[in-house]
Design a protein that fits this description.
By secondary structure, this protein is mostly helical. It has a domain of 77 residues. The protein is built from two helices and no strands. α1 packs antiparallel against α2.
Length: 126
């Protein structure tokens, strides 16, 4: 015989609806934050992919670059080839810098987003 039996807890509702039949504010807030984080990570990934492609392209250009000084006039054709390579690298370098700053800025946005989310979860900010 069981003397101190406690009744089972009431089941939680299967749907997250308030009495009016709409989603509650906490659930809507969490769902919108999920969408925001997916978009945020997608933008960050696009910037990072663009940066990776630029790094690969720049490394394929500099693969044929030689680290030597041509003192004789008989090597004018090699001087011209090196000048063309350096011109292409110089054209790509500003894009690499911009892409690097875009990835850094987007990384800062991601970190700020998650810090804000932590502070919201701990009820430090409202």
């Amino acid at each position: 015989m069981i003397v101190n039996r406690t009744a089972p807890l009431a089941a939680r509702p299967r749907f997250f609806h308030d009495p009016a039949g709409t989603l509650g504010p906490q659930l809507v807030g969490r769902c919108s934050m999920t969408v925001v984080s997916m978009v945020m990570w997608s933008v960050w990934a696009a910037f990072a992919l663009f940066l990776a492609v630029l790094f690969i392209y720049r490394s394929s250009l500099t693969r044929d670059e030689e680290d030597q000084i041509f003192l004789d006039d008989s090597f004018d054709h090699e001087k011209a080839q090196q000048a063309v390579i350096m011109a292409k690298v110089a054209r790509v370098e500003p894009l690499v810098r911009v892409a690097l700053w875009m990835v850094a800025a987007m990384s800062a946005v991601v970190v700020a987003y998650y810090i804000r989310d932590i502070l919201l979860q701990l009820n430090i900010i409202h």
